[in-house]
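FW: tagging you since you asked about this chain on Friday. Here's the raw sequence from the shared folder, copied in full. Didn't touch anything.
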Amino acid sequence: MSRRMQAIVTVLITIPIGIAWRMLPLHLPFFAWKYGGSVLWTVALYWTVAALLPRLRPAGVATISAILALLVELSRLVDQPTLNTFRETLAGKLILGRYFSLKDIAAYWIAIVAIVLVDCNLVKISR
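HL: got it, structure written out here
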């Protein structure tokens, strides 16, 4: 399976799991609910970047993903009516979130490190 297809399949699997994680009454502890959702969001972001740029090495995908995650989190500090209205929709809540948190940035970046380790092993296996 090509890297692009592998990334697309991973995103298509991760998104419904992430939505279920956040939306279904799974009765998860708050920490698992909050940061598990953040990790799943980061997995979807990383593999979306990998699908768009399949020739980019994992470190490059990680760098772009880390910057995008930071920008999305920083965008929560922007008070703009159209953006605020979008943030109140389901898509806005799932894609952009509503509240700024340094802990979320840490969770994203820790998740990216873990994903890179997995991705590097997948690259080795596919050779």
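FW: Residues 14 and 44 are 6 Å apart (CA to CA).
HL: agreed, and The chain has a mean pLDDT of 94.
FW: great, closing this out.
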